[in-house]
Design a protein that fits this description.
By secondary structure, this protein is α+β, with helices and mostly antiparallel strands. It has helices spanning 13-32, 57-63, 69-85, 89-108, 113-134, 142-153, 163-176, 250-274, 287-295, 306-316, 369-392, 401-414, 421-432, 434-442, 447-461, 487-505; strands spanning 9-12, 42-45, 51-54, 178-179, 182-183, 188-194, 202-204, 206-209, 221-230, 278-281, 299-301, 320-321, 333-343, 346-352, 360-366, 395-397, 465-469, 472-476, 484-486, 509-512.
Length: 514
């Protein structure tokens, strides 16, 4: 009797566990060497020849063409980490991979998967308690936030700018969108433009749009601008029914042209009479309407997409209007200045100040596409972690110091756990050690010797990390060197890695349909 389709493939027992664990480990290993300030870059080339050069774990895993379902779970760990806290994606993936490696060793010692899962859950609980104890008893001010941003970007491609310089811009950006209710992270955008050194990167107190004026004669700058958003076709209206008109004389032709001209001029006059200075229109604008408005000094942009329209409405307070007769000053938004500028073949519009300053844009520059892409990723991660740290008000030591403390706490508590679960708890601690070991390996130090030294320093001083300063790598207190991370990044990495590893370890039967 056939229960499954005869073309189905089934892998059971230890073979299924080994296959899944091997896939998970392979994914983790693919990003392990990117970890830390001395991490290496990866070059990813797709089938169309597009090249991505990065050491951002989330980007690497996203670009890789991964098919194995267990490996996909590790990718999901990275995606969850990115979505929740914006950084620590490599850390989460590497920990998950090493939890699987430790689980594989336990399975070979005939420790049941359920026992491993129980031990991992207990160890994760201990790890979270250890993170709580690592939270620094300090005020998370702008100086500390700058250290958080700098730590997240150190080792990433930042072009001619140092992570410290970029971190100042990031902290200022987050400060613009923070209030007593929290941080409006969605009001901070990153816009990239190739064609200048990365040192030209700046913070725009407003929004940047890939738009150009509807007419060359329109003003390039409008100060103290009243803004309208229209959903109106400013062109000759045509009916839905096809019709033909016979014109028998020049007078009739001129009359028809005059009627068109009058209709179009009427649109322009309604806009001018409303008192608006700048119009953003989702529909088309006839060249003659644009010319009339240009003569009156009105700046117009046409053919905007819904995304840009929502951004303008949110930033300036303008409300979308579907008919010119409905246009009223109550629907206007406001900005201190709207200007247009050309960058090579690209024209950009900047909406700055006033109500628009509630949203800010980090305007990233770079000499090549690869540089600006990597800068965009680095700045995006920094914005996320600075926002997270500001909202939670909790930071912990970086440079592997928190992982050393977590592993030490888990081993201390493991002695009080009965049964074989104790083996899994100790294995969890060994998996956490992969972070300082990898940091050491990526700096050229011996990972085992460095781990021993870190543990000894932690025992004697209470805090020890692998601090990189230029070409120098030392074991020291990372807090004294300004290397700190948001506590939420550590929590999320532990929780998501443990969940993925336990889920994969429990699978003992894989049925694949052909």
């Amino acid at each position: 009797m056939f229960i499954l389709n005869e073309d189905s493939q089934r892998t059971e027992g230890r073979d299924a566990q080994s296959s899944n664990i091997m896939a998970g480990k392979a994914v983790a290993e693919s990003v392990r060497t990117t970890l830390g300030p001395r991490g290496m870059d990866k070059m990813l080339v797709d089938s169309g020849g597009e090249v991505v050069i990065t050491n951002d774990g989330a980007t690497i895993l996203e670009e890789m063409d991964i098919e194995h379902p267990a490996a996909q779970m590790i990718v999901e760990v990275s995606e969850t980490q990115e979505a929740e806290v914006g950084d620590g994606t490599t850390t989460a993936a590497v920990i998950a991979g090493n939890l699987l490696a430790e689980a594989e060793d336990l399975l070979e010692q005939d420790v049941h998967a359920t026992t491993i899962v129980e031990g991992y859950h207990e160890a994760a609980r201990i790890a979270l308690d250890a993170i709580e104890d690592q939270v620094l008893d300090v005020e998370v001010d702008d100086e500390l936030l700058a250290q958080v941003g700098k730590s997240s970007m150190t080792g990433k491609g930042t072009g001619g700018l140092t992570p410290a310089e970029l971190a100042e811009t990031v902290v200022t950006a987050i400060g613009h969108v923070a209030d007593d209710d929290g941080v409006r992270r969605d009001d901070v955008s990153v816009y990239t433009q190739v064609g200048a050194s990365s040192s030209a990167t700046e913070l725009v107190e407003g929004i940047v749009l890939d738009e150009e004026p509807a007419h060359d004669a329109m003003p390039s700058t409008v100060e103290d601008a009243d803004i309208a958003i229209l959903d109106v076709a400013l062109e000759i209206q045509t009916g839905e029914i096809d019709a033909e008109y016979a014109i028998d004389s020049i007078d009739q032709l001129n009359a028809a042209l005059d009627a068109e001209e009058s209709e179009l001029r009427g649109y322009a006059e309604e806009i001018v009479d409303s008192g608006v200075d700048v119009v953003f229109n989702t529909d088309d604008v006839d060249d003659r309407v644009a010319s009339f408005l240009a003569n009156e000094g009105v700046l117009v942009f046409e053919g905007l997409g819904n995304s840009d329209t929502r951004k303008i409405a949110s930033a300036t307070g303008a409300r979308r209007v579907g008919a010119l007769e409905d246009l009223d000053t109550e629907d206007f938004g406001h900005a201190d200045r709207i200007r247009t500028d050309s960058y090579g073949d690209d024209d950009l519009a900047f909406v700055e100040g006033g109500a628009a300053a509630e949203a800010v844009t980090v305007f990233v520059r770079g000499g090549t596409d690869h540089i600006v892409d990597e800068l965009e990723r680095a700045v995006g991660d920094a914005l996320d972690v600075v926002a997270t740290a500001r909202e939670s008000g909790e930071v912990v030591p970086g440079a592997g110091a928190s992982e050393i403390a977590i592993a030490d706490r888990i081993r201390a508590k493991a002695a009080g756990i009965e049964g074989r679960s104790q083996l899994a708890v100790n294995a969890f601690a060994d998996a956490i050690d992969v972070i300082p070991r990898t940091l050491a390996s990526n700096t050229g130090r011996d990972p085992i010797d460095t781990l021993v030294d870190l543990r000894a320093e932690h025992e004697s001083e209470g805090r020890a990390g692998l601090v990189t300063d230029g070409e120098t790598v030392t074991i020291a207190d990372p807090v004294e060197h300004g290397v700190v991370d948001p506590a939420d990044v550590k929590r999320e990495a532990i929780e998501s890695a443990a969940e993925a590893a336990t889920m994969i370890a429990r699978i003992d039967d894989v049925i694949a349909a052909e």
